[in-house]
Structures are given as structure tokens and as C-alpha cells.
Write a sequence for this structure.
């Protein structure tokens, strides 16, 4: 048995012990609905079941570490209702569920699925966006150091930003909201793709609304151990989600927005290589030398294989610079 297997087994035992302890304290299993998405033909409803203290009021402004102090409920049945359909499902070992619902009968726009935890009978809602087949343009945006200043790759700073600072103190990258307004028409969807944990969903959703960024589904991940390692691969998570969007929305050509502090250029290069006709534009926020030092210890961009410049590309230090480059590109285009 490998180290990853031992860690996963230990995690499972701790999770189940935590659920029993919370149940004895009169906590109940409740669903947390994350933002899903879909087309007129099918939709993905996503969420997680956690033990909740019924006497504790929700508090969105808190120390970041509290977001990670959760008690997921593994392998528990849930019922998901959306439009004309009702689907039964079970959570996985980490308490997550993802349900694919066909023929829901909903019009394009924002809707809510109802998620019922069978054991407790508690109902919650999960928002989702149905995107019309007539939409032909969309944006996929990175989060960390693209719309939000985090310097995530550096472990100490990541811990400080994610665990110590209060969740309402995150700072936006200047001008990104205006840049997205310039890029998109009203019905063009925006997906936020991040290697951040689902535990930070509420904070990120609130951040997007507070800083007037376009509302859109968040595609996050889980930081726990996998069958092959102690941590999930962030780049692989991004690749999988990008390919899912290419498949789910065959009529959309995408603008990819990221930064040069991590692996966005390499990941976007892979997608351009695989689907060059589906990528309209790549926009890269260029970190300053000081930000690069904090991000990965060097004053320059990480050398990465691949080349996304087979499609139109723009670069800038913040949203205002990117918007200016976009204006030049649009005028010439």
C-alpha cells in the first residue's frame, strides 16, 4: 500500500468519525449548491453535503481558515430537481455530487435546482446558468492573479491569503471588470476556472459580485489525496474542465484569460493546439518582476513549452492595459 493510499484511508476514517461526532451534537447534513451550467439539452448540477450546526448563523466575513474546517458527508443520497426532471444521486467519498440532467425543459438564463438531502430532508438550492445554443462567444477566466491578487504559488503567501486574511479583504486586479465588459456582449457566458478549493466557493462568488465582475459558473477543485498522489494536479484539473467546455458548447469560440505567473500559457497552448478553431483570443496578464519573485522566486516568466500565439493574443499588466490592447485589436480586426 502506497503513501497516497494510506493518507486516503486515514482521511476517510477521520471524515466518517467527524460525521458521527457532529450528528451526536445535533448537527444535520445539508447541501451546499455550487454554480452549475448547461445548455437547453442538458445541465450539470454541482454541490456538496456537509454537516451543519443549525444554531450557527452563516457568516461570509471570517478568517480564511474557517472555510476549510468542514465535515463532508460521504456516500449519502440526494435528490436533485431541475425543471421537468428529478434525479437521485449519492455523494462521493468527499461529500461532492455532480448530476447531469437531460431534457430539463428550461429556457436560457439563470435558474435554481432544488437539492434535498434524503437523510435530513433539508432542501437547498443550487444556481445554474443555461446557455442558449445561439450564443457563439464566451470567456474562460483564471482567478488567482488574474482577477484576484493572491500570488498563489508561493506557499507562505498562499497560506496567509487563504487561511489568515479575512475573506472580504481579497484585492481585485485593477481594471479586469472593465476589460470583461469591453470583451463581451450581454449574453456571452463567463466561466471562472481555478485550482482553488471548493471550500472557497462562497468567498469567490461574493468577490465576483462585490467587484462587479460578470456573474458566471465557478469551476474549482478539491485539494485532497487521489489514488495516484497526495494532492490533485491543478494543471490537469484545468485541462479537463477546458475540454469539458469545448465539448458541452460546440457552437462557442472562447477567449482565454490568464496570467504568466503559473502555468496558464502552457495549458492554453495545449487547448489551442487541440482546438485551434475554437479559440478566438488569448489574453495574458503580465505580472510585474516583484510579483514574479513572490510567485515563483524569479523576476521573469516561468519558461513553459507550447505556444498559444497561433491565435490572436494580447498582453498587459492589468485590466486597463488589456482593454487598451483589445481596443487596438478590435480596430484592426
Amino acid at each position: 500500500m502506497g503513501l497516497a493510499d494510506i493518507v486516503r484511508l486515514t482521511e476517510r476514517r477521520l471524515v466518517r468519525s467527524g460525521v458521527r461526532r457532529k450528528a451526536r451534537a445535533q448537527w444535520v447534513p445539508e447541501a451546499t449548491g455550487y454554480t452549475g451550467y448547461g445548455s437547453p439539452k442538458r445541465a450539470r448540477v454541482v454541490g456538496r453535503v456537509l454537516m451543519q450546526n443549525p444554531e450557527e448563523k452563516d457568516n461570509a466575513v471570517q478568517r480564511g481558515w474557517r472555510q476549510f474546517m468542514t465535515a463532508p458527508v460521504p456516500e449519502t443520497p440526494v435528490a436533485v430537481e431541475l425543471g421537468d426532471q428529478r434525479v437521485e444521486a449519492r455523494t462521493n467519498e468527499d461529500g461532492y455530487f455532480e448530476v447531469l440532467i437531460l431534457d430539463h425543459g428550461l429556457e436560457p438564463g439563470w435558474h435554481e435546482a432544488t437539492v434535498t438531502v434524503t437523510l435530513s430532508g433539508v432542501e437547498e438550492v443550487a444556481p445554474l446558468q443555461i446557455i442558449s445554443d445561439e450564443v457563439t462567444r464566451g470567456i474562460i477566466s483564471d482567478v488567482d492573479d488574474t482577477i484576484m491578487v493572491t500570488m498563489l504559488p508561493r506557499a507562505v503567501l498562499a497560506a496567509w491569503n487563504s487561511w489568515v486574511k479575512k475573506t472580504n479583504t481579497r484585492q481585485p486586479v485593477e481594471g479586469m471588470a472593465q476589460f470583461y465588459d469591453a470583451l463581451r456582449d450581454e449574453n456571452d457566458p463567463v466561466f471562472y476556472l481555478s485550482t482553488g478549493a471548493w471550500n472557497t466557493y462562497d468567498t469567490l462568488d461574493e468577490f465576483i459580485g462585490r467587484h462587479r465582475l460578470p456573474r458566471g459558473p465557478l469551476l474549482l477543485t478539491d485539494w485532497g489525496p487521489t489514488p495516484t498522489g497526495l494532492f490533485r494536479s491543478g494543471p490537469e484539473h484545468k485541462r479537463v474542465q477546458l475540454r469539458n467546455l469545448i465539448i458541452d458548447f460546440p457552437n462557442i469560440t472562447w477567449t482565454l484569460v490568464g496570467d504568466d505567473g503559473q502555468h496558464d500559457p502552457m495549458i492554453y497552448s495545449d487547448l489551442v493546439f487541440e482546438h485551434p478553431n475554437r479559440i478566438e483570443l488569448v489574453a495574458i496578464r503580465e505580472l510585474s518582476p516583484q510579483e514574479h519573485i513572490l510567485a515563483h522566486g524569479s523576476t521573469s516568466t516561468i519558461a513553459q513549452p507550447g505556444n498559444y500565439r497561433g491565435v490572436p493574443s494580447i498582453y498587459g499588466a492589468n485590466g486597463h492595459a488589456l482593454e487598451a490592447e483589445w481596443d487596438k485589436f478590435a480596430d484592426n480586426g
The chain has eight helices and 15 strands. The chain has two domains: 3-130, 137-332. Residues 137-332 form a domain with the Rossmann fold fold (CATH 3.40.50.1000). Residues 266 and 304 are 6 Å apart (CA to CA).
